[in-house]
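Progress narrative, Year 2. Work on GNAT family N-acetyltransferase from Cohnella terricola advanced from sequence curation to structure prediction during this period.
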Amino acid sequence: MKISESWNTNSLNIRRAVTEDIEDLNRICASWQDKIDLEGEGFPEGYIENCMINGDLPPIKNAHIANYYFMVIQNKDGKIIGFFDLYHGYPDNETVWISIFLIDRETQGSSFGQEAIQSICDECMKSGWKSMGLGVHLKNWKGLRFWNNNGFNKIIKISGDKEYSATTFSIIGLKRELFI
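Result:
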């Protein structure tokens, strides 16, 4: 059950990332100005390069790069406006996991994120996956609203620090069922 290497929507081209995309992808990472406040840390040095070479694999036995997709989102003019990754088979064998989904700050609010998510869900459903999952930091109110509005409304796990403060963080795992 593998998804396509590339596909199109009405407004977007979605495809596997290549090394020539690194500069644009790093620019998009830099556009997330409040990441440290929301998640407690910025992107590690070489994040994009590491994802492309080694993958951002889940913490499971036998996780393998062959199940990992690092994808770019382009507008119809070919400009890279976002990226995401997918891991096939986490946290269970019927689920595809998104560990990062980011739209360039300049492009946010234009419905491209919603269009991309719907197309990702459609592509995964066509490939036979039953659900999609992801984790959102609880301080990320904008992200929580976005994911809930896009059908990720089943809570599968909450983990993190026990006490709330400016320097503590928690994550909520959300799931969206895919129906044929």
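The radius of gyration is 16 Å. The domain at 6-177 is CATH 3.40.630.30 (Aminopeptidase).
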